[in-house]
């Protein structure tokens, strides 16, 4: 896999991936689980949209409450890689569930995942319908009792603001636009994100997001949600 830039899905490979996911779910050895997550992340990058069938199983934000960096970092990389293989609309429910978890680390990590994903978008690729569904959870997190959850929510709002601008953001943010304290924090996050993203991608979306967009545009007959539902 290290030497192959493109991996094609096959029944045998899908069986192997399901086995890896089972090990990730059940094995208590952090090093084993970390290696599994790293392998799956590499597969997501190499398989591109072929990996979409695995997204519902991979994007499990409750696992991100893991505090040990050796595992959490690999899980974060896996979620980020998987997110470029299928439209956000296909796993919106998983994001909403993650934002509502009882563990604050799960909520914070779900929001951070979303902020990283949206940071790779621009106005042309912005998944507006999915964000409309997710936004109530983000707004609730912006008033969370846990500071890390609140800050993560502000980062999501900053990423949205960077993509679509203030007029469009106001309709998504609702009453929070009248909260000066929160909007100052969102603005500060936006400035940091803006400079970082512009330095990396310019004003364009990230290459992997553009590639996913092209796949969706070039295959309009593909029912992405149905593709993902077969694994549930």
From TrEMBL:
GO terms for biological process: establishment or maintenance of microtubule cytoskeleton polarity; microtubule polymerization; spindle organization. Pfam families: HEAT (PF02985). It comes from the Eukaryota. GO terms for molecular function: microtubule plus end polymerase; microtubule plus-end binding. HEAT repeats lie at residues 134-172. SUPFAM superfamilies: ARM repeat. InterPro entries: ARM-like, ARM-type_fold, HEAT, HEAT_type_2, TOG, XMAP215. Keywords: Repeat. Residues 1-207 form the TOG domain. SMART domains: TOG (SM01349). Belongs to the TOG/XMAP215 family. This is TOG domain-containing protein. It comes from Angiostrongylus cantonensis. The lineage of its organism: Eukaryota, Metazoa, Ecdysozoa, Nematoda, Chromadorea.
């Amino acid at each position: 896999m290290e030497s192959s830039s493109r991996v094609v899905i096959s029944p045998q490979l899908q069986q192997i991936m399901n086995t890896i996911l089972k090990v990730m779910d059940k094995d208590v050895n952090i090093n084993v689980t970390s290696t599994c997550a790293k392998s799956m992340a590499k597969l997501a990058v190499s398989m591109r949209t072929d990996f979409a069938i695995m997204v519902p199983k991979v994007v499990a934000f409750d696992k991100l409450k893991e505090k040990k960096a050796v595992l959490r970092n690999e899980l974060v990389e896996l979620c980020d890689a998987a997110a470029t293989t299928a439209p956000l609309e296909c796993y919106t429910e998983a994001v909403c569930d993650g934002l509502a978890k009882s563990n604050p680390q799960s909520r914070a990590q779900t929001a951070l995942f979303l902020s990283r994903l949206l940071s790779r978008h621009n106005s042309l690729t912005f998944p507006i319908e999915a964000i409309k569904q997710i936004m109530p959870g983000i707004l609730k997190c912006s008033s969370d009792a846990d500071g890390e959850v609140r800050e993560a929510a502000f980062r999501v709002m900053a990423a949205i603001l960077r993509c679509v601008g203030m007029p469009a953001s106001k309709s998504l943010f609702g009453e929070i636009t009248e909260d000066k304290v929160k909007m100052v924090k969102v603005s500060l996050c936006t400035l940091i994100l803006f400079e970082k993203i512009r330095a990396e991608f310019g004003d364009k979306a990230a290459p992997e997001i553009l590639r996913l967009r092209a796949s969706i545009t070039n295959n309009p007959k593909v029912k992405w949600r149905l593709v993902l539902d077969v694994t549930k």
